[in-house]
Design a protein that fits this description.
By secondary structure, this protein is mainly beta. It has one helix and nine strands.
Length: 128
């Protein structure tokens, strides 16, 4: 009986943890390319925000406004196997969608840097 009660309490805590609420002025981070004309940009994976890991392949990543440290990874260049990560310090404004990509000098270059590809407003009720 006691073991059964522990399982029920554990399940309940997981369900309640999934019901987290966010303020109306949150912003969203995406690793998708919007402007495809620049052939030297590549999609990214947002792996952590402020040192907290994000769920793999879970977009958008919801963040509150303020200065954020975003950890990103992108697929390795041709001839390399291990993706390199980079950090981006970003002043996140309320109610925005940020599309962050990796930019290389060319497709064979290993080194890359994060670039804000596009920013758009979400238009929420508590947005400025």
């Amino acid at each position: 009986m006691r073991n059964h009660l522990h399982r029920i309490l554990a399940l309940l805590s997981f369900v309640l943890a999934g019901c987290a609420t966010y303020p109306d002025n949150v912003s969203y981070l995406y690793g998708e390319r919007i402007h495809r004309a620049n052939i030297h940009t590549y999609s990214t994976a947002i792996t952590a925000v402020d040192g907290r890991a994000t769920m793999t392949h879970s977009e958008p990543v919801i963040v509150e406004p303020g200065l954020r440290v975003i950890q990103l990874a992108t697929a390795p260049a041709a001839g390399f196997r291990i993706p390199e990560t980079r950090e981006l310090h970003l002043q996140v404004e309320p109610c925005k969608r940020y599309y962050i990509v990796a930019e290389r000098g060319n497709r064979l270059q290993k080194d890359w840097h994060p670039v804000i590809d596009h920013v758009e407003s979400t238009g929420g009720s508590n947005c400025r």
